[in-house]
């Protein structure tokens, strides 16, 4: 019995040393050798002289191809490793490799009347995959006799087995009813932005159920904004398999990305390290071009620079930083304390301020708990948000992203507005019961129900525990205080993906004498949890004491009794 693992726990050493990221030799060497010999014989038509892959490709390509076809059991026809993900920087011949792999699969496939599929997110990407495949056929006399090219339908048909390779654009062609067993999904990052992309991919890959020889290959570069949807799900899973956190020997990830230490040191900015995510450097990728473009991007703002880094160096964008961004956003990612839960904040704090913002049916209901640490006096921030389920219909553009935050535990979806109020009040109650609550600081607009709910547990303005936080330009001090503490490391947070997204959505609007915070774009760019942070900072910056309203609370209750 074969025993193998697709984990690659030493990938950081391998990628820096330019070693293969494919963690194992082909399970069936004869199958790999046969398919690889055909793959190598294919010509690359857009290069001068139309060289074969054997003449112009690097070993990393051959290792990947051998892993795919070498996982097919020749006796049973079953594909032992049936799912592959290749993450690689732009211009590393990804689309050309995709065309050649699927053309090879069409030739070596044994099933008659079979359907092979390349699924692209747009017509342009579909054309980028189909054109090289068709050109490879035309460049080889033997293949030209064996294959029939149908330009109108982006199909290449095998004249003998009558099997076909079809390239489908998800934005125009339907994938329902497809019976393909061997599928390649190109530019997965774009699918991460599409509504119902998960259902679409499930439909496209449904034919694998009855085809034991089936496989699905995902090819992608990094996204031009923080990963979301099916792309984020698949990338997170691939990293867990690669790192050995999840055991799945039927899934093989090959991820060209920088080791964490190089990311933290920003070593990807050095030209000597460009090779790490560009294995085709010196072939299809020009070192001179990358250096020149990097120089241009460093003179620009972070918005375009981050897209360049994502596409050409596979540096994942943590936040969509723009020219009019909040300055604190640059330091947000570096102030994460892993494992900073609500309980941890309460356990370590001497006083706590809770900020609350939002709550409309089209908004997030944001909550931020800031605790002042006993010994260090640092501020520890934990955030959460609630959203009404109707937002998924009204804001379909961000629906998949919100679902990501829900799965991560940063966002709670409710179908009754009282549910979010109840849970928010529970957080306040727990904090108060532990003798830690200094105040609840809220945006006064539209929070009548919340004020009533907090009043029921004695958290009121008269008791000194409920404070209306100044908004608009009056919030400038809180905004500046938060960014200064991020810079000097005295504000730490739990690192939730939801807050990172909201921080990236924040826009700072300056005037001659002040600044105000607003959304980068109306509607879809939610910032309520960040505004809750600023609400809490407004009070915490006054250095309040825990339950400072307790004495007032007693006199308030006495007042109520006398009034009765």
TrEMBL record:
Terminase large subunit-like endonuclease domain mapped to chain residues: 273-539
Q: Which residues form a coiled coil?
A: none
Q: Domain of life, per the record?
A: Bacteria
Q: Where is the Terminase large subunit-like ATPase domain?
A: 65-238
UniProt name for this protein: Terminase large subunit
Organism of derivation: Thioclava kandeliae
């Amino acid at each position: 019995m074969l025993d193998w693992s697709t984990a690659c726990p030493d990938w950081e050493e391998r990628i820096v040393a330019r070693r293969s990221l494919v963690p194992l030799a082909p399970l069936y060497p004869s199958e790999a050798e046969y398919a690889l010999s055909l793959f190598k014989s294919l010509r690359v038509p857009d290069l001068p002289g139309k060289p074969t892959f054997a003449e112009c490709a690097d070993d990393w390509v051959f290792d990947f191809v051998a892993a795919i076809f070498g996982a097919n059991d020749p006796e049973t026809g079953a594909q032992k490793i049936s799912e592959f993900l290749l993450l690689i920087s732009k211009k590393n011949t990804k689309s050309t490799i995709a065309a050649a792999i699927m053309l090879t699969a069409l030739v070596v496939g044994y099933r008659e009347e079979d359907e092979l599929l390349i699924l692209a997110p747009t017509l342009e990407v579909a054309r980028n995959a189909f054109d090289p495949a068709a050109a490879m056929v035309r460049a080889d006399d033997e293949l030209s006799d064996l294959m029939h090219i149908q330009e109108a339908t982006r199909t290449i048909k095998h004249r003998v087995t009558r099997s076909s390779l079809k390239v489908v654009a998800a934005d125009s062609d339907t994938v329902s009813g497809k019976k393909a067993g061997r599928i390649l999904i190109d530019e997965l990052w774009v699918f991460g932005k599409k509504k119902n992309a998960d259902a679409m991919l499930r439909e496209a890959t449904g034919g694998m159920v009855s085809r034991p020889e089936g496989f699905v290959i995902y090819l992608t570069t990094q996204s031009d904004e923080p990963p979301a949807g099916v792309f984020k799900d698949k990338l997170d899973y691939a990293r867990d398999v690669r790192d050995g956190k999840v055991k799945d020997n039927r899934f093989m990830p090959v991820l060209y990305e920088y080791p964490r230490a190089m990311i933290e040191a920003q070593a990807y900015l050095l030209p000597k390290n460009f090779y790490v995510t560009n294995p085709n450097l010196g072939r299809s990728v020009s070192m001179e071009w990358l250096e020149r473009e990097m120089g241009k991007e460093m003179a620009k703002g972070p918005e375009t620079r981050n897209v360049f880094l994502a596409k050409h160096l596979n540096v994942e964008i943590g936040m969509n930083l723009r020219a009019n961004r909040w300055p604190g956003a640059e330091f947000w990612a570096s102030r994460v304390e892993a494992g900073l839960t609500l309980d941890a904040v309460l356990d370590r704090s001497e006083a706590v301020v809770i900020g609350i913002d939002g709550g409309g049916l089209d908004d997030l209901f944001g909550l931020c708990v800031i605790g002042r640490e006993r010994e260090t006096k640092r501020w520890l921030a934990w955030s959460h948000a609630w959203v009404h389920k109707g937002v998924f219909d009204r804001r379909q553009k961000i629906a998949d992203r919100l679902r990501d935050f829900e799965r991560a535990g940063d966002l709670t979806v409710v179908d009754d507005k009282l549910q979010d109020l109840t849970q928010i009040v529970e957080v306040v109650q727990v904090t108060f019961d532990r003798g830690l609550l200094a105040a609840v600081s809220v945006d006064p607009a539209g929070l009548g129900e919340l004020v009533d709910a907090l009043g029921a547990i004695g958290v009121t303005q008269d008791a000194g525990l409920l404070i209306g936080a100044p908004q608009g330009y009056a919030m400038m001090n809180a905004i500046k205080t938060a960014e200064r503490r991020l810079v000097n490391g005295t504000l730490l947070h739990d690192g939730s993906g939801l807050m990172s997204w909201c921080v990236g959505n924040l826009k700072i609007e300056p005037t001659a004498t002040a600044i105000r915070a607003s959304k980068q774009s109306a509607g879809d760019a939610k910032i309520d949890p960040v505004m809750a942070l600023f609400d809490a900072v407004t009070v915490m910056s006054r250095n309040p004491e825990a339950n400072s309203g307790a004495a007032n609370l007693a006199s308030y209750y006495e007042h109520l009794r006398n009034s009765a």
